[in-house]
Automatic annotation (TrEMBL):
Region of interest: Disordered: 423-442
Gene3D superfamilies noted in UniProt: 3.30.9.100, FAD/NAD(P)-binding domain
Protein name in UniProt: Pilus assembly protein CpaE
Listed Basic and acidic residues bias regions: 432-442
Organism listed in the record: Roseibium aggregatum
Lineage top rank: taxon: Bacteria
Coiled-coil ranges per UniProt: none
Amino acid sequence: MAACFDVAVAGGGPAGAFAARELARTGVDVVLIDPDTTRPRLEGLGERVALILRQKGLEDALQAASAPMRRSVRWAGLNDTANGERLVRRHDFDAALRHAAIEAGVTVRKARLRRIEQDDPETGVTLSLADGETVTARLMIDARGRQAPSTNRQKGPQTLAIAGLFSRPTPHSGTHVEATPQGWVWSAVEPGFGPWLQICIDADDLPGSGQAALAERMRAFLAQPQFDGRFETYGFEGDLLARPAGLVLSAPKLSLPVLSIGDAAVAIDPLSGHGLFWAISSALAAVPSVLTLLEGEDPDLAARFYRHRVVGTFWRQARIGRDFYRLETDLAAHPFWAARAAWPDNEPAHAVADATRLDRRVVVDGNRLKEREVLITPQDPEGVAFVCGLPVRELLELSRTEARATGPAEALRWLESRGLLSGLPDQPQKATETHTRMRETA
């Protein structure tokens, strides 16, 4: 007899484990399906992720990360150490998040998802596991990363990341990013793990397959003249790890009863440094979507909310990445850089609004999805639904009345900063929101 749950989460990485935990904390019956095969590796973790983890009481997961470390950069003529990041041991980090999910009441099945035997928006999903067990659920969250199946992928130039542990320490502490004609390199030293190096090259630029080919490509990269032989006597301990690292849109539309999150929806180029943030933030966004759907609300709310976030994230990340690659003008003639500086287009990376208006959007309200009016301004082109907890429509009406004198001071100051203390202009012009135009991805 199949075990029955409200939600089945496939994939126990940061996106899946975090979503499972947050849903269980709301009282949803969740099963997390994951074979637990994360290989040891280092990854960068930004302060936004650290803040979310603290807010959610996940200090144990932060124990898998270092204190903030200085990052040196050699990119586009820059040679400085202005920025920083934490280093996280991904295998320990993922395990800590799965443990937190179990403590929140999540049931765990340590197995690989073999197939979805039934996939019906009305009746839910029936999942067949590799160990022979069958699980049913009203909804499924697909958090299997880049391995999640897709029939509708959209992507730009693809990158391959090859990484491994040094047998000798690197000549610097903290982390280091450097541009080269063949691609770029990220190296890091974490005392509890060891020195780690990752190169990012064109996905087609690999001679053959297997460990020998990876080692040959790594040696060719590190032999580039700009390194001045500093890696010549360095070797690697154990096998090298190779994984796809290009930007990919795998699930542009919500396809109930399955909801994709993290890399299963949009896989982020590691150049952005936003991979873990996207995993956690997409999991956070999945919670109100799932709760709304479980309560039988109009699924169109979830579909619109999902598409706006996922497709918008893909195009925004594509254009932000393009702008970073374009900064490296000295390498513009090399194929790796030329392809990435030209894709996807010349539109701005962020939304643009040249006027102020009200629009209707699907937003999170009380941990559920609701259609609400949002205020679009040149300073807030993505739209604002609430200010200091007040709906923007209510705040605008308040600003026009005598109650303004006793209204919430912070909210009124926010309106004043937008020039809206007397309400919207009588004839607002339509805003131009360039990058939020949702492209059809057939």
